[in-house]
Amino acid sequence: MTSAAPAKGFLPLPHLAFQVLVSLAEADRHGYAIVKEVAARSGDRPPSTGSLYLSIARLLENGLIGQSEEPADGGGRRGRVYRLTGLGRQVAEAEADRLASLLGTAADRRLLPAGAAHGAASGSAKS
Amino acid sequence: MAIQPRQPADSWRHAAFRLALVALPEWFRDRFAADMEATFLERFAVARAAPLPSDGRRRRPRTPALRVLLAELGAVARLFVRLRWSGQALLDLPEHPARVAGVMPKERLLVETLIQDFKFALRMVRRNPGFVAVAVLTLALGVGANATIFGMVASMMAPRLPYADTDELMIVWSTFPERGIDTNSTSPADFLDWRSQNETFVDLAAQTSWSANLTGGERPLRLDGYRVSANIFRVLGAQPLLGRDFLSSDDASGAEGVVMLSWRLWQRLGADPGLIGDSLRIDGAEHTVVGVMPQGFEYPQFQFRGDFWAPMRLTPEQAARRGGRNLVVVGRLLPDTTRKAGELDIQQIAEQLAAEHPVDNAGRSARLVAIDGMIAERMMPAFAVLLATVGAVLLICCANVANLYLARASVRRREIAVRSALGASRMRVVRQLLTESVVVATAGGICGYALSQVAGTLIISSLPAFVVRVAPSAIEGGADSRVLGFTMIVSSDRRRHRRIRHHHRHRLRE
């Protein structure tokens, strides 16, 4: 938990930045794969390319994600592959924690079915 | 970072997206444009491949693809605005709310304060209508006087002449230095020699006045016209509105009489296009109308307005005459030839003519005056006095307004003290006061300009006809951009602002 303090400095994360981190926590992905994954998982409208790359730029700039040197598919048209860094994982965990406690409070005030909040809270409690 | 091979765009949508990316700041584009393009292409391809709509239409639904394209372009536009506004600061995490939530740091703050100051200044105007009215009126008088005089001087110093490339056009005056004559007309023989021997002009043309009687209609008319060399309109770079230009054969001795009408005379005669080809009896001789010059065309510009122009058709005797000097010569210099070079050229010819024809030409020389500098040359001292006078009037007005502001500043002491106490920086207070005075000065400038338009018409109506003829652009009036520019400069009047600022510095120190 020594690195929890620098990770907290990034909170709260913008929504899309958090989505990108969550997506990359599963696997390394290129830009469009992130779009697809975020849209499929959350059911939201997929983020536009412009906002996605602003998020990616921010996460790269702050060292939360890294990128492959060469585009994927041997110079094909898919773009670079992005991966979560150690710091990125810590920040994602801290943000998840923050959201989980927020959700816990929401559930306490009957804004949420208790099970959903508990699931989220217990998921983040493992870290 | 590896540079991506640049591939041609697949489609116009791809090209549009790529073009939109060009707007992004370079530092962002270098890092992400290629990846953004790749992502866009995949998204777009998926949108295009969307399944057929359930209503069984055969055509592939283009709308989802179009929607994706528009959304993507919109997102790039938003990104562009945010990046331009915040720059690299946009990449800070967490987001700084003031910076990132669509708000720009410095520039936005600047604009907002300006709007705030401006609104406050307008409230100040509403609260103190008397003070503002006096200040605005005082400024309007000063600015108006200056704008009026400046407008007249500008129209005479740099008249807008209805010719092509006026800077190449020169009036060639004959001079007689021994007798102090520097603006003399020329004899036909000298003109013809200048015209044939010079090496610096495209061509030379000449004109002399001809007051004539027009008979044959219901009533005879007295006309002011000019006899001209047939090339005059070509030298000036002017085209007839109707009909044809003069031909060089029209100028031959014994040629049929032809005449070019001014727009004004054409209107007087009924403005019938069928008039071309008709015959007019001028001073008892038949002249065929060959054309009509456009409205606003004058030549010469600085004499009475011409009703018509007719070729001179010099007889051999007239063409050989050196004694009678009645022609005013205008020439168009070859491109890239200076006035000085043209003048030296003509002076050499004049010297030679003086040697060949000592009886008429001994001691005669020539000089060139730019066609739009003719008035300026004579009137400069008078203009300088006029401008200095109205300049002094403006200074007095400014001093008065500055005094008004000083008196007012002592009234506003409390307000300023409160503002400072509430945390307004010195700069902030000064800026607010400056904005107020800019509002007043702008109002003064606008009123002054309006005043100058009225005053201009009044002055012109009281001027002798000669002066009015001299500056047709001043008579025709209307908004002159030069006057407008001058008014703006005059009303911005930094002296007054500096004084106010200076004064408030002291106030704040107290």
The greatest interface here is:
A-B, 34 and 35 residues
Sequence of secondary-structure elements of chain A: HHEHHEHEHH
Q: What percentage of the residues of chain B does DSSP assign to strands (E)?
A: 5-15%
Shape of chain B: extended
List the helices and strands and how they pair.
The complex is a heterodimer of chains A (127) and B (510).
Chain A: H1 4-8, H2 15-26, E1 29-30, H3 31-42, H4 49-61, E2 65-67, H5 72-75, E3 81-84, H6 86-108, H7 114-125
Antiparallel strand pairs in A: 1-3, 2-3
Chain B: H1 12-22, H2 26-48, H3 63-86, H4 97-100, H5 106-127, H6 129-157, E1 169-176, E2 181-184, H7 188-197, E3 201-215, E4 221-228, H8 232-236, E5 242-243, E6 258-261, H9 263-268, E7 279-282, E8 285-292, E9 308-311, H10 316-319, E10 328-333, H11 339-356, H12 358-361, E11 365-370, H13 374-411, H14 413-421, H15 426-461, H16 465-470, H17 472-476, H18 481-492, H19 494-509
Parallel strand pairs in B: 4-9, 6-8
Antiparallel strand pairs in B: 1-2, 1-10, 1-11, 3-4, 3-7, 3-10, 5-8, 6-9, 7-8
What does this structure look like?
The complex is a heterodimer of chains A (127) and B (510). Chain A has 127 residues and is mostly helical. Helix content of chain A is 64%, strand content 7%. Chain A has seven helices and three strands. Chain A has helices at 4-8, 15-26, 31-42, 49-61, 72-75, 86-108, 114-125, and strands spanning 29-30, 65-67, 81-84. In chain A, helix 6 runs antiparallel to helix 7. The longest helix of chain A is centred in the C-terminal third of the chain and has 23 residues, at 86-108. Chain B has 510 residues and is of the alpha+beta class. In chain B, 55% of the residues lie in helices and 14% in strands. Chain B has 19 helices and eleven strands. In chain B, strand 3 (201-215) and strand 4 (221-228) form a beta hairpin. In chain B, helix 1 (12-22) packs parallel to helix 3, helix 2 (26-48) packs antiparallel against helix 3 and helix 6 (129-157) crosses helix 18 (481-492). The longest helix of chain B is centred in the C-terminal third of the chain and has 38 residues, at 374-411. The model of chain B is unreliable at 1-5, 97-104 and 472-479 (pLDDT under 50). Chain A binds chain B through residues 9-14, 17, 30-32, 35, 46, 48-54, 56-59, 61-62, 64, 69-71, 75, 77-80, and chain B through 1-2, 4-5, 7, 28, 31-32, 34-43, 71-72, 74-79, 82-83, 88, 90-95.
